[in-house]
Design a protein that fits this description.
Number of domains: 1
Strand order of the largest sheet: 1-6-5-2-3-4
Mean pLDDT: 94
Order of helices and strands: HHEHEHEHEHEHEH
CATH class: Alpha Beta
Strand content: 5-15%
Number of strands: 6
Low-confidence stretches: none
CATH superfamily: Ureohydrolase domain
CATH architecture: 3-Layer(aba) Sandwich
């Protein structure tokens, strides 16, 4: 659905900064990661991302739940000795374990921080914190810009190359209804687009996760995802990747 929205004739191939995402070498589709059930899916994801990174690419992963971010960063981290993760979400997704699964969609950032897969984690749009997650945030020194802080004017201060992970439920469900865990009171699409466009440092990878087409309305959320992907690509093109 996101791919279809990217190719839809209802819009065009240009970002707001006039980057043509259809131009050769700008945005290439590497296909789906095939999970056959015979191998550890996290290892399969890590291997696929590592192949892209080793070829000099900067991956943008679409779909799946937020558990995919851990194997993605496990593959990228060796290429970036310094790395900041910018995380847009309604939820911190940092439970030590959720429903008995330490690798669930609600736990990726606990595993990421334990494994040292980034130097700094900045979370934006949070509005569904729980006491156990608050304890984890404090344990790992996560910089949380929750919605009250965002409304008060606080914005991320970032260092080092950036990996951006966007749970689409970070956006208010009025703008993006196609999610499994809608949480009112969130960011607008324009606020997230502006956040992407204002990143002061290179973007070396990204994911857009937790889109649920079954709950979408006329493909609206797919178009939101596609818009974010295009602007991430535009930012990647604008920012030089450090060596």
């Amino acid at each position: 659905m996101i791919r279809q929205a990217l190719r839809s004739p209802s819009t065009n191939n240009w970002t707001e900064a006039l980057v043509d995402v259809s131009a050769r070498g700008v945005l290439e589709d590497a296909g789906d990661v095939e999970l056959d059930g015979a191998h550890d899916p996290r290892q399969v994801i890590s291997y696929a991302i590592a192949e892209i990174a080793e070829a000099g690419g900067r991956p943008i992963s679409l779909g799946g739940d937020h558990s995919v971010t851990f194997p993605i960063l496990r593959a990228l981290r060796p290429h970036y000795p310094r790395l900041t993760v910018l995380h847009v979400d309604a939820h911190p997704d940092i439970y030590d374990s959720f429903e008995g699964d330490p690798f669930s969609h609600a736990s990726p950032f606990a595993r990421i921080m334990e494994a040292g897969l980034c130097d700094r984690l900045v979370q934006v749009g949070i509005r569904a914190m729980s006491p156990p997650q608050r304890a984890q945030v404090e344990r790992f020194g996560v910089d949380v810009i929750d919605m009250p802080a965002w409304v008060a004017g606080r914005r991320p201060e970032l260092e080092g190359p950036v990996y951006m992970t966007i749970d689409i439920d970070g956006i208010d469900p009025a703008f993006a209804p196609g999610v499994s865990h809608p949480e009112p009171g969130g960011l607008t699409v324009r606020e997230v687009v502006t956040l992407i466009q204002s990143l002061p440092l290179p973007v070396v990878g990204a994911d857009v996760v937790e889109y649920n087409p079954v709950r979408d309305f006329n493909g609206l959320t797919a178009y939101v995802c596609a818009k974010l992907v295009k602007e991430i690509v535009g930012r990647m093109v604008a920012g030089a990747v450090p060596t």
